[in-house]
Design a protein that fits this description.
Elements (H helix, E strand, L loop, with lengths): L1 E4 L2 E7 L9 E6 L8 H10 L1 H10 L7 E5 L7 E6 L10 H19 L3 E4 L11 H18 L5 E6 L2 H13 L1
Bound molecules: ligand AR6.
Ligand AR6 binds next to β3 and α1.
């Protein structure tokens, strides 16, 4: 499913993030930037040791912020590592921090001349963010950014599971 927002495209697909051919992939990392499971593990496995080397040089990333490395062996030239919030009950700044992940990732992309970006569903795996709410925040935040930043021509959400795709589809209809 795809929507046109001004000159940019916002789309959702079901699939594996690591296989995308966008200029950049966004990683759902943790503050250490030392790798982990889920998307993070998949990106480091597919991208090879160069990405971890660069991450260790950077040294870490606070929740809600983003850092850039090259894409190693991935098709994507860059990986933008962002750290989503661990979900407690929604009243510990989680919505603001999650929105910040998407915004800060796109700001890095704009600054680096990256035009096409693929995101996973940040925080909805190991970090436990409820999918419906996370989907709404993700799509709303990206939509607002694209309205102001036509230099980003494509944002693609790559959902690993059918249930996640369906939640994003519902959310995309309403944002
Ligand atoms: N492509 C697209 N989506 C994927 C893939 C993939 N290859 N693999 C998993 N997902 P998670 P988080 C989905 O746990 O919740 C790591 O250990 C998955 O189904 O990867 O932000 C980090 O190091 C889920 O919907 O990220 C951190 O410690 C979504 O991606 C922690 O997990 C996010 O799940 C971050 O947790």
């Amino acid at each position: 499913m795809q929507v046109k927002l001004g000159q940019s495209v916002l789309e959702i697909v079901e699939g594996d993030l690591t296989r995308q051919d966008t200029d950049a992939l966004v990683n759902a990392a943790n503050p250490s930037l030392r790798g982990g499971g889920g998307v993070d593990g998949a990106i480091h496995r597919a991208g090879g040791p160069k990405i971890l080397e660069e991450c260790l040089q950077i040294g870490g990333c606070p929740t809600g912020e983003a850092r850039l490395t090259t894409g190693g062996n991935l098709k994507a030239r860059y990986v933008i590592h962002t750290v989503g919030p661990v979900y407690k009950d929604g009243s510990h700044g989680e919505p603001q921090l999650l929105a910040s992940c998407y915004r800060e990732s796109l700001k890095l992309a704009s600054a680096k001349g990256i035009k096409t970006v693929a995101f996973p569903s940040i925080s909805t795996g190991a970090y436990g963010y409820p999918l419906k709410e996370a989907a709404r925040i993700a799509l709303q935040t990206v939509k607002e950014y694209l309205a102001q930043h036509p230099e980003i021509t494509l944002v693609r959400f790559v959902l690993f599971e059918k249930t996640a795709y369906e939640e994003y589809e519902e959310a995309l209809k309403s944002v």
